[in-house]
Design brief:
The structure is a single chain. By secondary structure, this protein is of the alpha+beta class. It folds into four domains: 4-82 and 166-196 and 357-394, 2-Layer Sandwich (Nucleotidyltransferase, domain 5); 87-162, 2-Layer Sandwich (Dna Ligase, domain 1), CATH 3.30.1490; 199-234 and 304-353, ATPase, nucleotide binding domain (Nucleotidyltransferase, domain 5, 2-Layer Sandwich); 236-301, 2-Layer Sandwich (Nucleotidyltransferase, domain 5). 35% of the residues lie in helices and 28% in strands. It has eleven helices and 18 strands. The protein has helices at 52-70, 106-116, 165-177, 188-196, 199-204, 236-246, 251-261, 292-316, 339-347, 372-385, 396-412; strands at residues 7-13, 17-25, 31-40, 44-45, 48-49, 76-81, 87-96, 125-137, 140-143, 153-164, 181-187, 206-211, 216-222, 225-232, 274-276, 289-291, 327-330, 351-353. The strands form five sheets. It has a five-stranded mixed sheet, sandwiched between helices. Strands 14-13-12-17-18 form a five-stranded mixed sheet, with helices on both faces. Strands 7-10-8-9 form a four-stranded antiparallel sheet. The longest helix is centred in the C-terminal third of the chain and has 25 residues, at 292-316. It starts with 6 loop residues before the first strand and ends with a helix. 45% of the residues are buried.
Length: 414
């Protein structure tokens, strides 16, 4: 009999689709993926809730689909959060080591991380994660794990990730209205990195870039730690909009054309190649031809813009052209043919398509770039939440709000 405590469920709420991955912790302690489901998104744009009713309906439909597939009821989930409202900043926490023998213990680490949170957060923002990047103990600098070491003054350097309070409340409200508890809120790009990056890549220096429908998220790692994160308000959906304007057609037709004809480099396209738009929409007249080079030219321009904005983020932390493990592309936008080749030209770095590291899944769709975030949420939970090593996530300030909400919604359930 499988205990519900051994089940981990990750929920990725995207602009184009809502995806759920379910994992099971086996008797030997390993993680086994047992289910996955996706449905089109409703009521969500750029990672933010635009209609609670529509979002609740879409989340419920995905949950039911996953429950039917696995035969398990979902009562709690790890939820990914993203969007342009996410902010990051660096902070330091300094404490005196408590023990008389001057030996650093877990409680000292916790106090140092708490001290780092005392920074003045922007109005209406709540802390999601406090990510330690390095520790200094007296004159010993850039320590990774000072537990057990001797010293008097412990300093931790952290990256603090915050979300807009109203967006967090709207997101948690949608989950609770489906009758499901939130086990943790995780910044989506951090979860994505868990599924597509190896420890060696993180040690060498690498950036994972998730090209979603409405936003592109970025996380840079070096020496095993997070160095920088960002969310930019441009994604693969902007290519569809550009095609709709450029081809003078509907967004639906433009999306179909993009899926079938798009690629990220136009050099090898003949100027004589034509595409009949009637093939993609009966609303278009027969013989409505457009040049394929124009289609690909629009796609190339927008993809190049996305990569240049990401490269500007690399420049902010002095890592443009300086990441030995290169760039890992993931998300739906990364599936565009020749996207990797264009990225190599822009970044002047090695570029790879970010499929899951462990790719021997019984469910074929899990091996694609689309499910990397939902899968990463399950892996994150297995590493940090289930094993009670959840010091990286600071959900406490968020919980004060969400606990009230959970109680209120539970009072409404039959």
């Amino acid at each position: 009999m499988i205990n519900s405590k051994d089940i981990i469920t990750g929920l990725d709420i995207g602009t184009s689709a809502i995806r759920i991955v379910m994992g099971q912790i086996t008797q030997d302690g390993s993680l086994r993926i047992i289910g996955a489901a996706e449905t089109p998104s409703e009521g969500i744009n750029r990672g933010s809730i635009t209609s609670i009713e529509e979002a609740v309906s879409a989340i419920s439909a995905t949950v039911e689909k996953c429950e039917r597939m696995t035969g398990f009821n979902i009562d709690k989930m790890i939820v990914g959060i993203s969007g342009t409202h996410i902010k990051t900043l660096n902070s330091k926490g300094v404490i005196a080591v408590a023990k008389a023998n001057e030996q650093v213990e877990e409680s000292d680490i916790d106090r140092a991380l708490e001290a780092a949170q005392t920074i003045a957060t922007p109005p209406n923002y709540e802390i999601l994660h406090v990510l330690p990047t390095s520790y200094n103990l007296d004159e010993q600098h850039d320590l990774k794990d000072p537990i057990g070491m001797s010293g008097v003054r412990l300093e931790v350097e952290t990256q603090i990730i915050m979300g807009l309070s109203s967006q967090i409340k709207n997101l948690t409200k949608c989950i609770y209205r489906t009758g499901i508890d939130i086990e943790d809120l995780v910044f989506s790009i951090l979860a994505t990195s868990e599924s597509v990056l190896t420890k060696k890549q993180k040690d060498l220096g690498v950036a994972v870039v998730n090209i979603g429908q409405a936003t592109t998220s970025l996380a840079i790692f070096e020496e095993g730690d997070i160095l920088h994160t960002a969310v930019v308000p441009i994604g693969a959906g902007h290519i569809t909009n550009d095609l709709a304007i450029g081809l003078r057609t509907s967004v639906e037709t433009a999306e179909s054309v993009k899926i079938d004809q798009a690629q990220a480099i136009a050099d090898n396209i003949s100027k004589r190649d034509e595409v009949d738009l009637h093939k993609y929409s009966e609303e278009e007249k027969k013989g409505t031809y457009v040049y394929k080079k124009d289609i690909v030219g629009i796609c190339e321009a927008r993809m190049e813009e996305i990569f240049k904005i990401v490269n500007d983020e690399l420049k902010k932390v002095g890592r443009d052209g300086k990441l030995p493990a290169g760039i890992v592309l993931t998300g739906g936008g990364a599936k565009m043919p020749l996207a990797v080749d264009l990225a190599k030209q822009v970044f002047q770095l090695p570029v790879f398509l970010g499929r899951p590291i462990d790719n021997d899944f019984p469910i074929d769709k899990l091996n694609s770039v689309d499910f990397t975030t939902a899968l990463g949420l399950v892996i994150w939970a297995d590493k940090n939440v289930v094993t009670n090593k959840n010091f990286l996530s600071n959900f406490s300030s968020v919980r004060q709000t969400t606990d009230k909400m959970r109680g209120w919604f539970k009072s409404l359930w039959p």
